[in-house]
Amino acid sequence: MQAAAPRLILASASPARAALLAAAGVAFEAHPAAIDEGAIKQAARAANATADATALLLAELKAQRLARRRPEAVIIGCDQLLVCEGAWFDKPASIEAAGAQLRALRGRRHTLVTAVLCQRGDQRLWHHIARPDLVMRNFSDAFLADYLALEAGHVTATVGAYRLEGPGMQLFEQVIGEHAAILGLPMLPLLGFLRQNGILET
After folding, report:
1. At a CB cut-off of 8 Å and minimum separation 6, what does 194 contact?
2. Catalytic residue flag (residue 36)
3. What is the CATH number of the domain that holds 26?
4. Would strands 87-89 and 109-120 be described as parallel, antiparallel, or unpaired?
5. How many structural domains compose the chain?
C-alpha cells in the first residue's frame, strides 16, 4: 500500500493528527518542530496577514525545520487557527482561560483554518487549506463547569479548548466540514496527494 521511500514525517506532537494517519494505515514518524508560534502570529497580525496565510506559514516553517535535518523524507507540516468574527484564538493557557474562551464562543459560529503542507528538502511539494465551520450551542454555565472539570487535562491542548472526538462534541449544535480537518489534519486531500505522487498505491 505504501512505497518504502520516501519516508513520511509528521512535524507535530498532536496525538489526534498521529491517530488520524495511523488509522488510515499510513506509515510515518512523528517529530515535533518547535517554532515560536506566538511571535509569528503576532507579526502576521501586525502585517495584516490573513488567517489562511498565517496558518500556512506556520505549517511551512514547521516542515522546513525538520526538512533541514531529514532532506530525504517528505515532511508533513500542519497548523490550525480558530477564527470567530475576525478574532483569532490560541490554545488557552489555563483552565480558567479555556472557560473564558468557551464563553466567548458560546452560541456563535467559528472557523478552524486548518493548513497542511508537504515539503521535501528545500522544495514545497503541495499544500491545502480546509475551513470547517462549527456552531456552538448556547450551553449553560453549569454545563460548562462540568465540562471543564471532565476535560481539565485536555482543554489547554487544543486551539478551541475542546476535543470533538471526545466530550467536546456536546458543545456543538452544528458541524460543517471534514471531521479529520476539524481534528487538525485534512486527511482526504492529503491522501490524494500521497497517491498522486506514488507514495501510496492508487
Report:
1. 8, 26, 200
2. no
3. 3.90.950.10
4. unpaired
5. 1
Q: What is the DSSP letter of 121?
A: T
Please, what is the end-to-end C-alpha distance for the chain in angstroms?
8
In a domain, 201, yes or no: no
Query: What sign has the CA pseudo-torsion 93, 177, 22, 148?
Result: positive
Instruction: Please check whether residue 202 lies inside any domain of the structure.
Output: no
Q: Which three cell numbers stand for residue 59?
A: 505549517
- Asked whether residue 159 is domain-assigned, the answer is yes
Q: What is the pLDDT of residues 82-123, one digit of tens each?
A: 999 999 998 999 999 999 999 999 999 999 999 999 999 999
Q: Are strands 123-130 and 8-10 parallel, antiparallel or unpaired?
A: unpaired
Provide the domain limits for residue 36.
Answer: 8-196
Residue ranges with strand state E in 133-171: 133-136
Q: What is the pLDDT of residues 132-144, one digit of tens each?
A: 999 999 999 999 9
Which one from 52, 79, 133, 146 is the annotated catalytic residue? Answer: 79
From the number of C-beta atoms within 10 Å of its C-beta (0-12, 13-18, 19+), residue 122 rates as exposed
**pTM of structure:** 0.94
- Where do we find the cell 535535518? 69
Q: Could you give the CA distance from residue 26 to residue 200 in angstroms, rounded to a whole number?
A: 8
Please tell me whether residue 117 adopts helix, strand or coil conformation. strand
Strands 8-10 and 87-89: unpaired
Q: Give the Cα separation of 27 and 184 in Å (integer).
A: 18
**What cell does 138 get?**
448556547
